[in-house]
Structure to design on (627 residues):
């Protein structure tokens, strides 16, 4: 089942490789069939493949409902894939099994979007971090206090905040605690699900800079999920654009942002607000909400370039080295 | 290293005291009033052997149906027992039985509901089915069946309530847990590889127990009324043991000439109910402050 075109070549062996990942929801399997309840099957992620080299950051972009969050959740085991494989350092994650046992630190960790919901409201910063360290025996018991201070320092939190409860922290501080909690188990891969979407712009920049610093010092591999292209462009080495569960375009950030080949990527970039408004070249705004076309290319109904060929779903083909696009009429 | 740890422990102990003080300071007037009232009632019940001027079961035929006042503060009943002493001793029974009838089912009800809500799927369906059967079962039929088997008394009430009363708590905890489990901190706990036990008990439970605690306060009142009511109709506590409901029943024949026999134990029920309701009300406000309000 190897599809050389769908996984762009990487120079180093991939730290994280996602091969033909498919996730379906609903369907009413198991006991629900007894009651005759059968929810319609929704394919949230459809045959998605990508690879991330060690120390690299892949930006996963798409509008809400594109399945980008589901990809991230499948990676950390929050949803079970219906098909495909997830490889970490060449090892199949499903073969590693549910590494939920005590003392087995997770190698893939996640940072969440909602700064208000991502911390247990009843645990102080110290309690939140100490629990992780103790549970996984990251440091010997008498070293926990020092390690908590070190983790707080790592994410730029002053030690004076250690006994604060989450409700006494700002949004940016909460996100830093969430980051410290994820890093406490020493992961090699960090999945970031819209980590700055809920923050003020000034705080966004601080957190993004922190992430870049940590990526360099800790040699982290990151999957950065976001809908804001500006943010993705700032942190990513590579980009994958998702639409209704499938990858539309993938390539290096520079390539995709300067020479978008897929009409969907182009419309996303056109929709970005610019500092200097140019009234003459106001971009065409995409109509509709993206109901899935019954067959063929899933972007067909909204696509300005759609033609007869689009009745057949286009495969992801390489335009140039590392730059793949799933479109019958890619822009040159 | 050890000195640092010791110092931190000291700081944490001081922090705990300060936290407690701040906690009490944040209570509403309602909550404070209810807590003080209940504390006084509980204290009176605890101290009954020292406070009560008479043996609650001792009969004195020279002092029959005496009105309140004098040596017999609350008067005496038709066999000359001191009502005040009996009300005090009854408080011990009513409070402790009400407490057990409320909090024992609450403990396993909340645990079952929280686990079902967290797991969902088959576990939830099975628990939900059992709970629905328990809810559909009429309580009075249950108590009559149990009394028929083991005879009247407090044990029959315990068995019936323990079999049926957990469902309300299970439903509350289940509903709250279903909301809570989708929150990011619960997902984070799963991603961090914590065990289901730890996630449900340590992370989920403290955040879903609030509504059950509030409900428990009104349930406490209802359970004292239930105990009194069942004793009143003869299915509960048997004479001569002092119990508020049983005392009200004993006094009903003399209600016209000796109102105090029924009324004063009734007043004790009302006072206890008021204290618990005030606490329940205050707790409800307290929890909504915590979750919604600003720091």
């Amino acid at each position: 089942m190897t599809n050389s075109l769908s996984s762009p070549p990487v120079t180093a062996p991939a730290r994280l490789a996602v091969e033909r990942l498919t996730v379906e929801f609903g369907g009413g399997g198991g006991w629900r069939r007894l009651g005759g309840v059968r929810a319609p099957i929704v394919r949230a992620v459809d045959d998605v493949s990508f690879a991330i080299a060690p120390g690299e950051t892949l930006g996963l972009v798409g509008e809400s409902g594109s399945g980008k969050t589901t990809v991230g959740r499948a990676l950390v085991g929050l949803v079970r894939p219906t098909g495909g494989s997830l490889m970490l350092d060449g090892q199949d994650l499903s073969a590693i099994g549910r590494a939920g046992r005590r003392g087995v630190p997770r190698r893939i960790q996640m940072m969440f979007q909602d700064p208000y919901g991502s911390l247990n409201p009843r645990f102080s910063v110290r309690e939140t971090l100490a629990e992780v360290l103790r549970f996984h025996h990251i440091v010997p018991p008498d070293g926990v206090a020092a390690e908590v201070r070190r983790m707080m320092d790592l994410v730029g939190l002053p030690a004076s905040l250690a006994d604060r409860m989450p409700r006494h922290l700002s949004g940016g501080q909460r996100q830093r605690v969430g980051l410290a909690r994820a890093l406490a188990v020493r992961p090699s891969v960090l999945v970031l699900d819209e980590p700055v979407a809920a923050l003020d712009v000034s705080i966004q920049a601080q957190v993004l800079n922190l992430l870049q610093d940590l990526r360099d010092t800790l040699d982290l591999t990151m999957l950065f999920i976001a809908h804001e292209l500006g943010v993705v462009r700032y942190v990513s080495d590579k980009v994958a654009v998702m639409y209704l569960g499938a990858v539309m375009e993938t390539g290096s950030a520079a390539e995709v942002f300067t020479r978008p080949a897929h009409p969907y990527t182009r419309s996303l970039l056109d929709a970005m607000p610019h500092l200097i408004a140019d009234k003459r070249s106001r971009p065409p705004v995409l109509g509709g909400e993206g109901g899935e076309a019954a067959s063929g290319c899933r972007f067909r109904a909204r696509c300005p370039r759609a033609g007869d060929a689009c009745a057949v779903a286009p495969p992801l083909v390489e335009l140039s080295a590392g730059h793949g696009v799933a479109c019958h009429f890619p822009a040159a | 290293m050890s000195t640092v740890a010791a110092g931190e422990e000291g700081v944490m102990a001081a922090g705990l005291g300060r936290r407690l003080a701040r906690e009490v300071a944040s209570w509403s007037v309602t909550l404070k009033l209810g807590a003080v009232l209940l504390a006084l009632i509980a204290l009176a019940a605890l101290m009954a052997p020292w406070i009560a001027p008479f043996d609650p079961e001792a009969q004195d035929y020279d002092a029959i149906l005496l009105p309140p006042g004098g040596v017999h503060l609350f008067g005496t009943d038709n066999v000359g027992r001191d009502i005040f002493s009996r009300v005090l001793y009854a408080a011990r029974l009513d409070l402790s039985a009400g407490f057990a009838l409320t909090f024992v089912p609450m403990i396993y009800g909340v645990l079952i509901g929280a686990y079902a809500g967290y797991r969902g799927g088959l576990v939830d369906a099975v628990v939900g089915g059992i709970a629905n059967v328990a809810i559909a079962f009429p309580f009075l039929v249950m108590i009559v069946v149990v009394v028929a088997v083991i005879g009247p008394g407090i044990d029959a009430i315990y068995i019936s309530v323990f079999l049926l009363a957990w469902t309300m708590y299970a439903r509350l905890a289940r509903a709250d847990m279903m909301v809570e489990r989708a929150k990011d901190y619960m997902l984070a706990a799963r991603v961090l590889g914590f065990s289901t036990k730890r996630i449900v008990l340590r992370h989920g439970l403290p955040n879903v127990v609030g509504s059950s605690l509030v409900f428990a306060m009104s349930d406490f009142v209802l359970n004292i009324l239930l105990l009194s009511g069942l004793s009143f109709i003869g299915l509960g506590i048997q004479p001569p043991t002092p119990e508020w409901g049983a005392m009200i029943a004993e006094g009903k024949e003399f209600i016209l000439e000796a109102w105090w026999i029924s009324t004063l134990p009734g007043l004790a029920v009302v006072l206890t109910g008021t204290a618990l309701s005030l606490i329940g009300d205050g707790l409800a406000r307290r929890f909504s402050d915590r979750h919604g309000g600003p720091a």
